[in-house]
Amino acid sequence: MTDRTDARPWVPADPTPDSLREALQGCRGCELHADATQAVPGRGTFDARLLLLGEQPGDQEDRQGAPFVGPAGRVLVDALDEAGVDRSDVYVTNTVKHFRWRSGGGKRRIHQSPGRAHVEACRPWLDAELSLLRPVGAVLLGGTAGKALYGSTFRVGEARSVLRDWPEKYPVAHPPAWVLATLHPSAVLRADPADRQDLYAGLVADLRLAATTLKDADPS
User: Fold this and answer.
1) Which residues in the chain land under pLDDT 50?
2) Do the strands 50-54 and 90-94 form a parallel or antiparallel pair, or are they unpaired?
3) Tell me, what's the pLDDT at 1?
């Protein structure tokens, strides 16, 4: 890490969707910016009823400047569609906005999970997004997202598939009515071939629970 401890100096004091996206590209709140192509903002409308929170951009996300556009993104899109989630009603973002990677030789870039310091450094950006969002529910994709909200003892394998309250220790202006943890789509891709179908089915089942809960909350 550099002598900068977090992103607060770069986050607009009175953020709007446009000012957040513009200011994010100048962020120097941790060292990850130095090796990334760009920062990756969230995608979707800020009046979306469902928040999807992932870990960090991957290789393709870093190159294209949008979340979940690589292989894990294709798994997520398929799972959302199969679960009956209306993707036009989703805002998707990551806990960390720059891609952390190491060289795999040549042009290959190998994903490295962000450390706790990176999550904390990037928290002001997530705080700013959450100040503009008013989601009914939130789905946490993987352990990094879960730990960012619930702390270091969070384990996605133990916490998934259960609706829970938004954590009191992470106050926001408009907390979602419920939070659901599930595995990150990349876990499906990393799994042994024999296990992938079951893991994907579990992801779809969790997202179907989110879709059903959203539908039940619809006043119409």
Assistant:
1) 1-3
2) parallel
3) 43
Instruction: Output the pTM of the full model.
Output: 0.94
The tokens for 209 are: 């629970």
Give φ, ψ of 213 to 5 degrees: -65, -40
Give the CATH architecture of domain 8-217: 3-Layer(aba) Sandwich (3.40)
Region for residue 65 given its phi and psi (left: phi exceeds 0; alpha: psi -120 to 50; beta: otherwise): left
> Which two tokens mark 155?
């384990």
Three-class DSSP labels, the chain: CCCCCCCHHHCCCCCCHHHHHHHHCCCCCCHHHHHCCCCCCCECCCCCCEEEEECCCCHHHHHHCCCCCCHHHHHHHHHHHHHCCCHHHEEEEECCCCCCEEECCCCCEEECCCCHHHHHHHHHHHHHHHHHCCCCEEEEECHHHHHHHHCCCCCHHHHCCCEECCCCCCCCCCCCCEEEEECCHHHHHHCCHHHHHHHHHHHHHHHHHHHHHHHHHCCC
Helix 116-132 with 143-150: angle, nearest 10 deg: 80
pLDDT of residue 94: 98
For the chain, give every domain's residue range.
8-217
- Amino acid identity at 26: G
Residues 76, 199: Cα–Cα separation, whole Å: 12
